[in-house]
Amino acid sequence: MRLRPTTSRPHAAKARSLGGFTLAEVLAALVFMSIVIPVAVQAVRVASEAGQVGERKAAAARIAERVLNELLVTGGLQQSTRSGTVEEGERAYKWTMRSEPWSEGAMNLVTVQVVYSVQGRDHEVNVSTLYNPAMQTTTTTTQ
User: Which CATH superfamily is domain 30-135 in?
Assistant: First the structure.
């Protein structure tokens, strides 16, 4: 009498199921990663640009205020327009001053606009004040 081996293989089926991922699972993971990775990279780029814009906007506002104060002290506000460039570190900020009559009296509305670039796009900051040319005081120094 010959014995035949049985055909039930519980260990073989168990080993195959623990062996790895199916092709469908690998493809699903690749599709998921092809969607998630570009979105994550775009989010990092947007966050980086927002940080740079915020940093340069603060610097541009500081520069606009400084230019406005310098023009006030030197009498430059009496001109209708002026422009220039301020370099801060490796960055250049272009500024333009406009002085125009204010609608509510004998004062002038003076606006300093500072333009700066972030990742190839121009942004601007405007700082304005009212200036009364009749109230301009002069200082005299005697020795």
Answer: GSPII I/J protein-like (3.30.1300.30)
**Rounded to whole angstroms, how far apart are CA atoms 21 and 17?**
9
Given a cut of 60, is residue 138 above it in pLDDT?
no
3-class DSSP state for residue 4? coil
- Residue 88: which pLDDT band, with cuts at 50, 70 and 90? confident
Q: What is the DSSP string of 39-66?
A: HHHHHHHHHHHHHHHHHHHHHHHHHHHH
Q: What is the pLDDT of residues 6-56, one digit of tens each?
A: 665 556 555 555 678 999 999 999 999 999 999 999 999 999 999 999 999
Q: What is the DSSP string of 81-140?
A: EEEEEEEETTEEEEEEEEEEE-TTSS-EEEEEEEEEEETTEEEEEEEEEEE-GGG-----
The pTM for the full model equals 0.66
Distances (CA, A) of 52 to 39, 58, 89, 118, 123: 20, 10, 15, 7, 11
The rounded distance, in Å, linking the Cα atoms of 100 and 113 is 14
